Amino acid sequence: MSLSDAAHAAPRAGATPALNSPAKVLTASLVGTTIEFFDFYVYATAAVLVFPALFFPSSDPMTALLASFATFSIAFFARPFGALVFGHFGDRIGRKATLVAALLTMGISTVVIGFLPSYEQIGVIAPLLLALCRFGQGFGLGGEWGGAVLMATENAPEGKKNWYGMFPQLGAPLGLFLSSGLFWILLHFMSEEALLSWGWRIPFVSSLLLIAVGLWVRLSITETPDFQKAIDNEERVAVPAVELFKNHKVSIVLGTFVALATFVLFYICTAYLLSYNVKVVKIPFTDALAIQIWGSVVFGAFIPLAGKLAERFGRREILTLTTILIGVFSFLVPVLMVENEMRIMGFVTLGMALMGMTYGLIGTALAAPFPTRVRYTGSSITFNFAGIFGASLAPYIATWLQSNYGLAYVGYYVLFAAAITLLCIFASGKGKV
Predict the structure, then answer these.
(1) CA 170 to chain CA mean position, Å
(2) DSSP 8-class letter at 238
(3) In sequence order, which ranges of 118-239 are alpha helices (DSSP H)?
């Protein structure tokens, strides 16, 4: 179904859509984000393990790694464009059809990566095609995340928005677990030579199966009650982005930097840490991936805890406390990130526990300031702007700081992000975060 077809199929004013069961809503939001983040993190893992050798050959391994991380960052700059395009249709024709289109965009881009020739085969065209596919991944995810959060929160009963809003957030640790786990399995059943030759393609091509499951789930749900009310009350606007940037600029800026520490912390504890373990500590690929798998388990365990605590004590209060703890954690970076696997396990356990606490609430927090008519666009834009400032260059910056100044400066980088986030939480009014 095209977006134009979906527009004609949108519920008519006054129509009463069938109510989605809680299980169907939460499954649809969780399955979709799991698939999207699986696709996203498969690239992040490959950017460390295989892409430097296959797409960015260089006599200096660090130069090749930095080039690989540069293409990794492209997706974050693509995400706001995806947020604007998919957000427009999500606020105009509905959440459901837009989520299906975003899932297909992300999925197709991922599968194509699995069929790309290497630099050795076609030269400089290979990294250019890789960059184009990475842009497609970011474009799709830019439209996916906001819609998934709204699918959950706009179906939530009174007093349950934080709990419902954490379900799509669980897609991130599940996607990380599946992507890392798949590479871990491949390395146990094939040599590194075979992985570099053809095995790396398996995770990307296998995304086809996940896409099929995601489409089946997404197509079975109906539109959200909040969006149906917007239709009934004729609240939709012709160009949501215009109203958003005209009337909600402060919410965009504050929301972007409220999520800054979340993004910096995550990519320090995942993509950068994986690179550090393999390239600096010289941990075998399989052991480095096992550490990342453990981190995804801790990450996932703390997301529901964040939802429960926010329902009891308040979302703003829990986000404030967690951000302060991230600042404290930053001083442990040079202490724990030494060439000792037990300390590194301590680092990833503490870091990903804090990540679960902040990420579990950030979706609901970023959607809260915006009215229904621009909520898809607004929440997506703030989340993806935060991705640019907090995540796109985090592995690159951390690698550069570590190489030139030492691990303490990686910690200062995390501290700086936490301080900005804390200030923006305080600057946001009650109920706006």
Answers:
(1) 10
(2) S
(3) 119-122, 125-153, 161-169, 171-189, 192-194, 201-205, 207-218, 225-232
CA distance 169 to 178: 15
Q: Per-domain residue ranges for the chain?
A: 21-427
Burial class for 22, CB neighbours closer than 10 Å (0-12, 13-18, 19+)? middle
Q: In which region does residue 250 sit, left (phi positive, over 0), alpha (psi from -120 to 50) or beta (all else)? A: alpha
C-alpha pair distances (Å), 139 with each of 15, 46, 173, 174: 32, 19, 21, 21
Q: Which of 78-82, 96-100, 186-190, 248-252 has the highest mean pLDDT?
A: 248-252
pTM above the 0.85 mark? no
- Taking each helix axis as running N to C, give the angle between helix 285-313 and helix 22-49, from 0 to 180 degrees, rounded to the nearest 10: 150
Please give the pLDDT value at position 210: 80
Fill in the DSSP letter of residue 10: S
Rg of the chain (C-alpha set): 21
Report the C-alpha gap between 83 and 146 in whole angstroms.
8
Dihedral of CA atoms 70, 133, 291, 362 in degrees, nearest 10, equals: 90
- By the 8 A CB rule, do 171 and 299 touch? no
Question: Is CATH 1.20.1250.20 the classification given to domain 21-427?
Answer: yes
